Amino acid sequence: MLRREAWLLGVRGVLAVVFGIVAIIWPGVTVIALAVLFGIFTIATGIEQLVHAMRPSAGATNPVTGFADGNGPRLARAVAGLFGLVVGVLAIVWPGITGVVLAVIVGAWAIVTGVADLWLAARQHGGWTLALVGAISVVAGLFVVVRPEAGAVAIAWAIGVYAIASGVLLLVAAYQLSHQGRGRLSAA
Where are the bilayer-spanning segments (predicted)? Predict the structure, then answer.
């Protein structure tokens, strides 16, 4: 189970780094191309969040929510995952939306995902990397939502830096998780 989680975090991290590099190298890329890249990245992240939310747990399942009782982080991940899927599909279906609208969508997505990551990190021991990803996500999202008119280049750079930083931290978290799993296997 830990190996699969580490792999999913690693894929999310690689996609974030690639997306960030593209956004920095080609800031003048058209809104359509940026929207499609963002859509693919957000769908992948949404799927990863949903996979984590749907993991079986040892606790009793709440018949109303479908989640384990007392398992708020699963609900947060499910909401973030569904939001990511919707935003990603919208970005791909309507790539011609204006840069300001895309910036607000990106900012809102970053805030929601960041809050979900912070919530999960608060419930884990040693989840500092996930907490840092969440904090960076919230700060970047707020910057973009507050200043959507800052221009396509500045927004592309801010998104690129955010994506690279969070991608590297996700790769670190995946590495730590994979070694945590190895430690448990060798102890057994």
Answer: 7-26, 75-94, 100-120, 127-146, 152-175
Whole-number Å distance between alpha carbons of 5 and 166: 17
- Residue with structure tokens 């910036």? 103
pLDDT tens per residue across span 154-188:
777 878 898 999 999 999 988 988 887 565 545 44
Tell me, what CATH number does 171's domain have? 1.25.40.600
Name the domain count of the chain. Answer: 1
Q: Are 116 and 134 in contact (CB under 8 A)?
A: yes
Nearest to 130 by CA among 142, 140, 122, 138: 122
d(CA 58, CA 56): 7
Do 92 and 36 form a contact (C-beta atoms < 8 A)? yes
Please tell me the distance from the alpha carbon of residue 9 to that of residue 11, in angstroms, as a whole number. 6
Nearest to 56 by CA among 67, 45, 40: 67
- List C-alpha distances in Å: 9 to 55, 87, 124, 142, 168: 15, 20, 16, 24, 10
Range of the domain at 177: 2-187
